[in-house]
Amino acid sequence: MTIAQTYLQVVQKRFQSVKELGDKTLAQMEEAQLHWAYNEESNSIAVIVKHISGNMVSRWTDFLTTDGEKPTRNRDDEFEDSLHTKEAIISAWDKGWQVFLEALASLTESDLQGHVTIRGERLAVIDAIERQMAHYAQHVGQIIYIAKLVKGSDWQTLSIPKGQSQAFTEAMLDKHQR
């Protein structure tokens, strides 16, 4: 396997992991909780989801052939809380991720050597992918943080529970040393 093939495989796995963290977080939330914001300057989970989805659809539709900032995108509208139901929020979430993950999966080794444009700026394809990794991971982290604040003691951890790190490490060592 070439380094480019390895990269494509690894980056798809990492993005899928970021999506799964978001999926598990959204599943824990009740509809009203998805619209909670700390203050007027803060975004709710619903708004962050709408923004991520808008970004994904814009950036990854015709990724290799058109500017990533599509004329049909209304970025400012993404920051208006207009997805009123949990179903609409999850639908937007799923739509964005579907467009993105399908485009990512379609990339070839030779595509990685090319360039794309975003708002007229020419970027190496790998740079554009890594830029989105930072962007999406940041926003999913925000979603998780907001959810933890809202859920309080009802939050169900997405990773190793407090006080169980050593047991988890031992189980992983046992699993991988066999």
From TrEMBL:
Gene3D superfamilies: dinb family like domain
Protein's recorded name: DUF1572 family protein
Species the sequence originates in: Lysinibacillus capsici
